[in-house]
Design a protein that fits this description.
Strand content: 5-15%
Number of domains: 1
Structural class: alpha+beta
Order of helices and strands: HHHEEEEHEEHHEEHHH
Length: about 250
């Protein structure tokens, strides 16, 4: 805290943007908060992040806004043009070494960090902070509900749609229809920002496999109990195979 106060003294404009904290600024259940983003900035950030024409894709949060599909960022240096377009799949040029597939695809680790942040904010705000999700829909959600909406979109990458196809396998007929392959899920490095098709390394289980924890987490957590008593006691007790409640 002393370091933060010293930083505020040296850079007074920080005080206007960081979240107020300490006595007089406690949230639900008298919880404190230490965050760089105050409520006004958080609302502005989320209004863009939850816009389906920008960051919110059908299968998670994109790494760059879809806005740049028609409005690329262009920079001219020494007679050369450098540009960043929205690219929902693989990079189309060798800029930044060629392996720069961050201009549109959905990356699971980034989404997980966003979900964690939303849950932390929910523990502080509860139902006192709601926002449209998706932006412009008129549908107001608290931040736990927003996190679950994003989680559901991530999970939908692997679930068969109304045509019986999994978005993760895109146009691969063998993985979509062959009974010897269709139920063996591959966890890719990143995913197409518009249709969820798996891209890059196909055995990136170490981070994309975390989707299994999302299914478990949102299946067990009681948001009202979580808000009231905190993270450890917010989980609904499971049952064993005999239907008895686990202790």
């Amino acid at each position: 805290m002393a370091q933060i106060q010293e930083r505020e003294r040296r850079i007074p404009e920080l005080r206007k943007s960081i979240h107020p904290t300490g006595p007089g600024h406690f949230g639900v259940a008298e919880r404190g908060i230490l965050a760089l983003v105050n409520p006004e900035r958080l609302r502005k950030i989320l209004s863009r992040m939850l816009d389906e024409n920008e960051f919110l894709g059908p299968h998670g949060i994109r790494s760059i806004s879809k806005f740049h599909e028609k409005h690329p960022y262009v920079l001219h240096v020494n007679g050369q043009e450098f540009r960043v377009d929205y690219l929902p799949d693989e990079s189309d040029n060798g800029m930044f070494g060629g392996n720069s597939n961050w201009r549109g695809p959905v990356w699971m680790p980034v989404n997980i960090m966003l979900l964690r942040a939303l849950q932390q904010y929910y523990l502080y705000y509860g139902d006192n902070f709601k926002i449209e999700c998706p932006t412009g829909s008129g549908n107001l959600m608290n931040l736990f509900e927003v996190s679950k909406e994003i989680s559901d979109r991530l999970i939908s990458t692997y679930i068969r749609d109304e045509k019986g196809k999994r978005p993760v396998y895109g146009g691969s007929e063998k993985f979509q229809t062959d009974p010897n392959w269709r139920d063996y899920i591959l966890f890719y490095e990143y995913y197409h920002g518009d249709n969820g098709a798996g891209l890059g390394a196909s055995h990136q289980t170490g981070w994309s496999g975390v989707v299994a924890k999302l299914i478990e987490l949102y299946g067990l957590v009681d948001p009202e109990k979580l808000l009231k008593v905190g993270k450890k006691a917010g989980f609904v007790k499971g049952t064993d195979n005999a239907g008895k409640q686990k202790k």
